[in-house]
Amino acid sequence: MVIQAEAGPVVVYRAPERAIEAFDSISVTGKQALTQMRQLLGVLRTDDTADLGPQPGVDGLAELAAGVREAGLPVELMVTGTERRLPAGVDLSAYRIVQEALTNTLRHAGPSHASVTLDYTDDVFRLSVVDDQQLVRAGFAMILDAQDDLEVVGEAADGQEAVELARATRPDVVLMDVRMPRMDGLAATRMVTGELPATRVLVLTTFDVDDYVYAALRAGASGFCSRTSAEQNS
Q1: What domains can be seen in the chain, in order of their start residue?
Q2: Is the pTM of this model over 0.70?
Q3: What is the rounded CA–CA span in Å between residue 131 and residue 204?
């Protein structure tokens, strides 16, 4: 990255297109490096050093909701239970999930109303991961299970397995891919939210396409998160 940065000014006048490519490459490399550094710090960080990080957390949800209201989406934020400090990874993940969900609702859902409920309990937050790619499932499960307040209760490779797993384990949240064999994530979301109203579904996909967003929200999904964003903010 340093070599590319030093080469940029040299070629900017002789070959502008190469300079643009160099700066684009620097941007990508820098983002990747920051993501890796955050992941490393998340592993090394303890509660004693959590305050050193500049990352946002649930204490910033009120400000986030206010900003979304100003952008035109009415948002109701409710906090229940006894507030307490969360592990750094959980704190950041909770903020990013809400941020992504509100952003996608504002962009794709049209005139609507959003409600965000932050419920502090003494229980472990239980999740299931649904994706037809085994490596992706394992990666998300490993990251989530490493958090003190999160427990991955199971993994599923398609929509049918996701529904059966949800019936058996009744997770708090299902991370649901869209495109899968046998039964896709939209049909599975419809069945899970219809049978288990207390279970929330967060649709996880690489396809930032309006049709998928509308279909996911209509099927009962509580939020929509691109796979790239989730990986970068893990």
Answers
A1: 2-44 (no CATH), 53-122 (3.30.565.10), 124-234 (3.40.50.2300)
A2: no
A3: 9
Among 11-15, 25-29, 154-158, 203-207, the least confident range? 11-15
DSSP letters of the chain? -HHHHHHHHHHTTT-HHHHHHHHHHHHHHHHHHHHHHHHHHHHH--GGGGGG-----GGGHHHHHHHHHHTT--EEEEEES---PPPHHHHHHHHHHHHHHHHHHHHHS-S--EEEEEE--SSPEEEEEE-S-HHHHHHHHHHHHTSTTEEEEEEESSHHHHHHHHHHH--SEEEEESS-SSS-HHHHHHHHHHH-TT-EEEEEES---HHHHHHHHHHT-SEEEEHHHHHHT-
Q: What is residue 37's predicted lDDT score, i.e. its pLDDT? A: 63
210-219 and 88-108 helices, crossing angle to 10°: 110
How far is 150 from 198, CA to CA, in rounded Å?
Answer: 17
Summarised one tens digit per residue, pLDDT across range 162-189 is 999 999 999 999 999 888 888 999 999 9
Quick count: other Cβ atoms within 10 Å of Cβ 221? 27
Structure token pair of residue 215: 């279909």
Per-residue confidence band for 11, with pLDDT thresholds at 50, 70 and 90: very low
